[in-house]
Amino acid sequence: xxxxxxxxxxxxxxxxxxxxxxxxxxxxxxxxxxxxxxxxxxxxxxxxxxxxxxxxxxxxxxxxxxxxxxxxxxxxxxxxxxxxxxxxxxxxxxxxxxxxxxxxxxxxxxxxxxxxxxxxxxxxxxxxxxxxxxxxxxxxxxxxxxxxxxxxxxxxxxxxxxxxxxxxxxxxxxxxxxxxxxxxxxxxxxxxxxxxxxxxxxxxxxxxxxxxxxxxxxxxxxxxxxxxxxxxxxxxxxxxxxxxxxxxxxxxxxxxxxxxxxxxxxxxxxxxxxxxxxxxxxxxxxxxxxxxxxxxxxxxxxxxxxxxxxxxxxxxxxxxxxxxxxxxxxxxxxxxxxxxxxxxxxxxxxxxxxxxxxxxxxxxxxxxxxxxxxxxxxxxxxxxxxxxxxxxxxxxxxxxxxxxxxxxxxxxxxxxxxxxxxxxxxxxxxxxxxxxxxxxxxxxxxxxxxxxxxxxxxxxxxxxxxxxxxxxxxxxxxxxxxxxxxxxxxxxxxxxxxxxxxxxxxxxxxxxxxxxxxxxxxxxxxxxxxxxxxxxxxxxxxxxxxxxxxxxxxxxxxxxxxxxxxxxxxxxxxxxxxxxxxxxxxxxxxxxxxxxxxxxxxxxxxxxxxxxxxxxxxxxxxxxxxxxxxxxxxxxxxxxxxxxxxxxxxxxxxxxxxxxxxxxxxxxxxxxxxxxxxxxxxxxxxxxxxxxxxxxxxxxxx
Length: 702
What we know:
By secondary structure, the chain is of the alpha/beta class. It folds into four domains: about 5-205 and about 340-370, P-loop containing nucleotide triphosphate hydrolases (Rossmann fold); about 215-330, HprK N-terminal domain-like (Udp-n-acetylmuramoylalanyl-d-glutamate--2,6- Diaminopimelate Ligase, Chain: A, domain 1), CATH 3.40.1390; about 370-515 and about 670-700, Rossmann fold (3-Layer(aba) Sandwich); about 515-665, Isocitrate/Isopropylmalate dehydrogenase-like (Rossmann fold), CATH 3.40.50. The protein has 28 helices and 23 strands.
């Protein structure tokens, strides 16, 4: 069953509050604990809470605190994006969402409100958030005062744009449609949107839901109620500015008009009230007195003496023109406490939405897309579950120190930094970091040095290593760190931001050695594309593996994929698919594929296979119809380093917003991982988290 749904509007005033109410009621019939989450809210200056959060929490009694239900205000989100902190923003949103997900059986998420001037920003950010949360989306479109063609066109564009961002579309609800267009629009949408799994619903415009009430105006402005509190729920059909003499003004009032007039126009106020007693004039909804000018006491005494006139009078400090401009931005909300509107909204939803069909879809729908942000967040959370101890030999590096600060603040793992202690501490102070919880060890002054020298000497003396040479070698931070891992004083090591790959890996070969079932050390990259994670191996270590080695790489890569939550479907890549090609290189892949099948008969495997047939379902139907791997491979095994290294870099650069995490070393008895010398701070954080997860797996904790 899906655990979430993201309601994303495509523009302002789409009536999504009605959709939220309907879906929440539907979910609560099936699930005991439902959460509600708005990643970004836009609270008006005149309100102290978000309208929809207040509505849902007060009506459904979800037992959630207001602070749990949102992450940022719209202005805060814009500031974060403009400051280049979108990743940090998404990390916070993911964290707050995951906290709700952990305590609820389902989380209903609602997108932004589309404030004037930020429509493009909000549509874009909603799409990225839905993708990063892994939520299927219910797209809510606004059909108010639009032709059928306009609605169909805008709906198609919205779906295409969201799918391009990696969002799974559960359904589309077009709201506020002219009742005479309901059937025609539904048929046109079904013809235009060729997606049989996408639910389509069309809901009519209900005037009494879209119209604001006098109470909405009072809350919006923080207006003072001078008279007629019993009429605050009167609905407003339109606004009329009374700037002429009363005899002329009366000709312009309509049913449900809100009369807006300066406070010094007592004649307008009295004429407006008197019109309610006359059957010759339509009933106004209320009067809004502007300019902060109080009505004279004599006029108020006269008004208060009239009985049975349900015409509220509000007063605001603003002048008439800015008041009218503000009123144009006021939407007719379904607000908390308005039982009449809430009941009407729920009735409208149930009358026009196939609730049983939708319920079944929610039960079966689950997004399988994984964005880079979501995957990286998952790595950190997985590493935190069973904290491991990671040693970083390059403790003098500024990037290593900054990454260490992040890792310790987030509680990812325990850390030991190696290097000259005085130099490391001076660097930490200069960078303004807090690494008080890190162990700082200077190898040549460590109490562990003699034990490590003795162990290394015993390991290598048959190869001609002298005791003095063993001591000289062991004061090298990379060798010292590797021995920490071997002796159990650390669970894993990460190096390479300063040192070469060879200098990082060689101590691992000499001290930790390969697993009993492995003859080589190989590597994989976790390729985080915009909507999925793939595993590429070997792209960093072995230049031209034999068929035997290629089989080992495939088996180890499948194991690594499983550790990181990627279900392995292995493609043994070649320049031919199936039996279409011949040659020495193809024969090597065929032999390697057969070896894997013998050793791991339950592993989903296909080879030889070309990259396009492995990743593209349409190509797979032609080249390998019926294959369980073709078109949906997750683990790609390249025949040599030249092919693998170039391919991973090409995919990384050609795919927008893709992230390559690695290389991740596999085949050693204990985890050691190599950084590139051009690595970024997030690269270091991710690699340390990966190393911690590998350490967990080695202990049977994953």
